[in-house]
From TrEMBL:
Annotated TM spans: 21-39, 51-74, 86-104, 110-131, 143-163, 169-191, 256-274, 286-303, 348-367, 373-392
Domain of life of the source: Bacteria
CDD domains noted in UniProt: MFS_NepI_like (cd17324)
Domain Major facilitator superfamily (MFS) profile: 17-398
Protein's name according to its UniProt entry: Major facilitator superfamily MFS_1
SUPFAM superfamilies named in the record: MFS general substrate transporter
Highest classification ranks of the organism: Bacteria, Pseudomonadati, Pseudomonadota, Betaproteobacteria, Neisseriales
Keywords annotated in UniProt: Membrane, Transmembrane, Transmembrane helix
InterPro entries: MFS, MFS_dom, MFS_trans_sf
Origin species: Pseudogulbenkiania ferrooxidans 2002
Keyword Translocase attached: no
Xref: Gene3D superfamilies: MFS general substrate transporter like domains (1.20.1250.20)
Length: 398
């Protein structure tokens, strides 16, 4: 284990071994799962902490807002502070947040710790730029794609695990167990993470002020951020609303929802595929395809309502595949811009993505309660269409 704990000079790419890729992928998946455990079980959490049905989706959206705040205020520090120490400190905060979530009994306190849980889970976004830094240009897409596959598996498996555990042991057991898992992950990272001290010498205030300049002066960053924000809005909208549809319209219990979410994990195969497409120079056509197919993924249930749960499964798998494809393509483009500011570029990109995700989650309950799955489908299709139209207007890079 100690063989991986070494100092990495800034600006010196090195080969990422399969062991390191697997380690980074596992840690990313385990950490990012923290912000998705609540998504399929809000129907159990809300009445227990006295939240109404219309405000239940605040649990998910506040966690994602917290994540976006962490991305904006914490992740840029990866260009300033020693990466390993920053990552460990952030992971320790997530342990406390998960434990507090398991114990909270008042709605205000629960929503506050949900925000903190999202804020403290951004350590995953310190791992991914570090992996990109450790990888040479020729294999960066493959490495990022492999790690993103672990991240997406964490997102997708968090839902079935949470549903299954909540059904058999109660929803509080989900967060209590997650806090124990995070403690183990933190110990693993402390023992194996390579150290990296950035060369950047600016103050924290200067670092934050530079974010606006970077966004304004980097067209590729703006474009890719908008595309993925739209896609993640649809992703979060679907996965926040579909448990309501499955329980209220199709009579499924939490264990059934767990199986449904597990099937959606098939979309994780997109990560290595899209990474290789990016390395081969096919970013633009792959982006157009991901956005177009993502917009069409809601059609099965809209056109043939009798498909029922089977149609929802098709939407979930196809949508997850498209979202993951577009995510890896975007990160591959952004990580190629400037290694010295990679954490800030990633912070801006992922902040935009999770603002989109929080938007999708926030409107899910409202759309479903007023217009059922039809309104959810129409809104879910609209976001990728906006991104597709924007992408089609770009003459150069996607």
């Amino acid at each position: 284990m100690k063989t991986l704990q070494h100092t990495v000079p800034t600006g010196t790419p090195m080969a990422m071994t399969r062991t390191m890729i697997a380690l980074f992928a596992f840690c990313c998946g385990a950490i990012v799962a923290n912000i998705y455990y609540a998504q399929p079980i809000i129907g159990l959490i809300a009445p227990d902490i006295h939240l109404s049905g219309q405000t239940a989706s605040l649990i998910v959206s506040l966690t994602q807002i917290g994540y976006a705040l962490g991305l904006f205020f914490l992740v840029p520090l990866g260009d300033l502070l020693e990466n390993r120490r920053l990552l460990i400190g952030t992971a320790m905060l997530s342990i406390v947040s998960l434990a507090a979530t398991a114990l909270a009994r008042q709605p205000g306190l629960f929503l506050l710790v949900s925000l903190l849980l999202g804020f403290s889970s951004v350590s995953v976004q310190l791992l991914i730029p570090l992996a990109a830094h450790l990888s040479p240009e020729a294999s960066r897409g493959r490495v990022v794609g492999g790690i993103m596959g672990g991240l997406l598996l964490g997102i997708l498996l968090a839902r079935p695990l949470a549903s299954f555990m909540a059904d058999h042991f109660g929803w509080r057991a989900v967060f209590g167990t997650a806090s124990i898992l995070m403690a183990a992950i933190t110990l693993l990272l402390a023992a194996t993470m390579p150290s990296r001290q950035p060369d950047h010498k600016a103050s924290y205030g200067q670092l934050l002020r530079s974010l606006a300049t970077l966004m304004a002066s980097t067209p590729v960053l703006r474009q890719r951020s908008f595309y993925q924000a739209c896609m993640f809005a649809t992703f979060s909208l679907f996965w926040t609303a579909v448990p309501l549809e499955l329980t209220q319209h199709h009579g499924l219990n939490q264990s059934h929802i767990a199986i449904f979410a597990l099937v959606g994990a098939i979309g994780a195969i997109a990560a290595p595929i899209s990474g290789r497409l990016a390395d081969a120079g096919h970013t633009r056509p792959a982006t157009l395809a991901a956005l177009a197919v993502g917009a069409l993924s809601f059609l099965p249930v809209l056109l043939v309502p009798s498909l029922g749960v089977a149609g929802l499964v098709v939407t979930g798998v196809v949508l997850d595949f498209c979202v993951q494809t577009n995510m890896v393509l975007g990160q591959r483009e952004i990580y190629a811009l400037n290694p010295a500011i990679r954490n800030r570029l990633n912070a801006l990109y992922m902040t935009s993505v999770f603002v989109g995700g929080a938007t999708g989650s926030a409107i899910a309950s409202i759309l479903y309660q007023h217009g059922g799955w039809t309104w959810v489908s129409l809104a879910g299709s609209a976001f990728p269409v906006l991104a597709l139209l924007s992408c089609m207007r770009q003459k150069g890079r996607a």
